Amino acid sequence: MTPSAENKLPVPRHIAIIMDGNGRWAKNRGLPRTAGHAAGAESFRRIANYCRTLGVEYLTVYAFSTENWKRSEEEISGIMRLLGAYLKEALRDMEKNRVRFCFFGDLSRLSPQLQKLCNEAQSLSSEYDVQVNFCLNYGGRDELVRAAKSFAEDVAKGERKPEELTEQLLESYLYSADVPDPELIIRPSGEMRTSNFLLWQSAYSEYVFMNVLWPDFGPADLDQAIEEYHRRNRRFGGV
Ligand code: IPE
Ligand code: IPE
Ligand code: MG
After folding, report:
1. Could you say which of 68, 129, 154, 223 is catalytic?
2. Does the global pTM surpass 0.85?
3. Which of 18, 58, 98, 235 would staple 129 via disulfide (CB 3.0–4.6 Å)?
4. CB 225 within 8 A of CB 184
């Protein structure tokens, strides 16, 4: 853990957030759901910046799940438009913001333009303070199935043997290979479930569920989640 610049409390190295509640935020205001997603994107900008000033090394955010394709075409294209706009802006400001981008999820289902922006954002950023992992068309189960398939392919090619498989080796087939597990996972919006987020990586994460909707989530809420994390007694199966 690195010491926080603001309050001297050590901050977790890796924080993950399920950015939920955009739709309800919009509904409460009589606005279309897409307006909620636009406000959610603003909230993400604010929190990513704050994480950087706190000294958080990895920020993983759930932006679009493998199940979110069940939504209306209008809502999905609105979300994708916002993502594209955000990535364009990020590509421009990346150096200034010293952020490195990574994408967890099957990007092949996204539009070619959006895939191109993701690839550009991922290939840049050498010098950085914080790595942002964007979960896009991400599902924890899908991630595990893909890892199992890749390993099986390597076995079929004779590059691996089944008995070689360990937790560590399996991890190297996940989107999160080389990223430490999140110490803290935050879900705003009042829902208390994982919704298929980081199933493997969350084995010993501390969950903090909060009643605020994601567009209203600010630095003070993140401070509160970190304080709650510090009150937890992490035993990892010990005593
Ligand atoms: C999270 O907000 C954003 C995505 C899932 C893309 P929601 O759109 O799920 O907002 P609620 O849960 O309906 O309020
Ligand atoms: C989880 O939120 C996915 C994201 C925040 C991207 P959902 O709104 O899709 O989850 P459920 O449907 O409430 O479980
Ligand atoms: Mg939701």
Report:
1. 68
2. yes
3. 98
4. yes
